[in-house]
Write a structure and sequence with these properties.
This protein is of the alpha+beta class. It has helices spanning 2-24, 31-63, 133-138, 141-146, and strands spanning 65-79, 82-93, 96-104, 117-123, 126-132. Helix content is 46%, strand content 34%.
Length: 149
Amino acid sequence: MEFIALQKVIMKNIKNKNKSKQKLKLKKLTKSQRHTLLILAVMIYLFVRCLEYDVIRFRLAINGEITSGIIYEKKTWHGKGGQRYNYKYKFYVDGNMYTGETVYADKPYKDTRIGDTIPVMYLPHKREITDSYNAVARSGGISFAKLFK
């Protein structure tokens, strides 16, 4: 008798679980809807990636500190619109060394050499976030940041 009562309770629990699983099933998306969501996700990703450096430069313009960085590597390459110069630099804050990288397309920077100093901006609370002062100024971040100070 107890076995039959236990079996009925188990069967009832199984039926209740099946009902709750059916309620949780989501509406299945059509192929067209899946494609639309995929395209939307890719567009959002690309939009965010495009704005990433502008957001960083804006943060540097608002909260950044300026120091001198020393160029330790220079690469020259041709991109859209002409020659570009990629500089890696290092700077010291409180005895710790930090590194950064910046790209210039301007002709005045073609004569910059390894060992030269450039003005560098960094976030005091997260010193790994850095860029050259000229890159931040060129992006319009400093002019825009003055509106908020």
